Amino acid sequence: MRALVSKAVGGPETLEMVALPDPVAGPGQVVVAVKACAINFPDVLIIEDKYQFKPQRPFAPGGEIAGTIASIGEGVTGWAVGDRVIAMLGHGGLCEKVIADPAKLYRLPEGRSFAEGASLILTYGTTIHALLDRGHIKAGQTLLVLGAAGGVGLAAIELGKAFGAKVVAAVSSEEKAAAAKSAGADETLIYARAPFDKDQSKALAEQFKAAVGRDGAHVIYDPVGGDYAEPALRSIAWEGKYLVVGFPAGIPKLPLNLTLLKSCDVCGVFWGAFAARDPKANQAHIETLFDLWEAGKIAPRVTETFAFEDGGKAIAKMAARGAIGKLVVEVG
């Protein structure tokens, strides 16, 4: 089989297409023939050795896939060869075949494409955990979403609306504002590109405050970080929740006096660890996502697909923060 692998620390240009032996399903395992692999920001970090986990090289990036079951190992029940599935891997998705844990498989509904299936679990799973378990979002509250045109950003807009919130989407361009509006955002604002000096940071804080209204944002969903974090925090409501999701713009340092003045919480969101520690709660969230998908309240937005040979280009576009919605590599 073919695989797009990282042999050395570096950017997407270091990835190499290689031939590897087909994997064999051991006891309690299945082999999935990969049809589509979604690209996420962790794929940028993992090949640069900047992610929480550092797999032994060579390895293929790609944490979420969709495909069909090619073979089944001893002791596996409830699945059959040919079943259409979504699988969460952590890494390894940019291969024509992968070994998967049946406990981390989900059935891909009929009528849904492999590209859509590969784009559902990570972004929406992260976001439903963030909004419900960490943000305790309630109907009628105001949700401010930074980086709102990315995969997790659009998921936050849709889920925020599904849970009855007013959603303010913050983005970096008119094109991204249009994408946020199409996903259901009530308001949009366009911010400048960082870095910011002190006056620019203050101006951005005022921009956030004007957008969320006098009471502030009850929940702030931040998958961006960097110089955007402090201005956003300054717009938070009394006893609001600031959700720390990611740092493509850099790891920020927040003045903790702001948390005292607003009596607010800064909450970390580590969905992978949550799913491992409380699989039953995570499974309940995933079931809710499938219900919302069937009801048309959420829908993964696959905005661009790439040939398998161009998987590195997809990761490069993610690294440049140019993606709107989900980028998917068509493997099979």
Jot down its keywords.
332 residues; alpha/beta; 7-stranded mixed sheet; 6-stranded parallel sheet; 11 helices; 32% helix
The chain-level structural class is: alpha/beta
Number of DSSP E strands: 15
Query: How many DSSP helices?
Result: 11
Can you give the mean pLDDT?
A: 96
Oligomerization status of the protein chains: single chain
Written overview of the protein:
- The structure is a single chain.
- By secondary structure, this protein is an alpha/beta fold.
- It has helices at residues 41-47, 114-118, 121-134, 151-162, 174-182, 198-212, 229-233, 257-262, 271-277, 279-294, 311-319; strands at 2-5, 16-19, 30-39, 64-72, 84-88, 97-100, 105-107, 142-145, 166-171, 187-190, 217-222, 236-244, 265-268, 302-307, 326-330.
- The strands form three sheets. Strands 3, 4, 5, 6, 7, 14 and 15 form a seven-stranded mixed β-sheet that branches.
- α8 (257-262) links the parallel β12 and β13 (265-268).
- It starts with a strand and ends with a strand.
- The mean pLDDT is 96.
Topology:
Blueprint: E1 2-5, E2 16-19, E3 30-39, H1 41-47, E4 64-72, E5 84-88, E6 97-100, E7 105-107, H2 114-118, H3 121-134, E8 142-145, H4 151-162, E9 166-171, H5 174-182, E10 187-190, H6 198-212, E11 217-222, H7 229-233, E12 236-244, H8 257-262, E13 265-268, H9 271-277, H10 279-294, E14 302-307, H11 311-319, E15 326-330
Parallel strand pairs: 8-9, 8-11, 9-10, 11-12, 12-13, 14-15
Antiparallel strand pairs: 1-2, 3-4, 3-6, 3-15, 4-5, 5-7
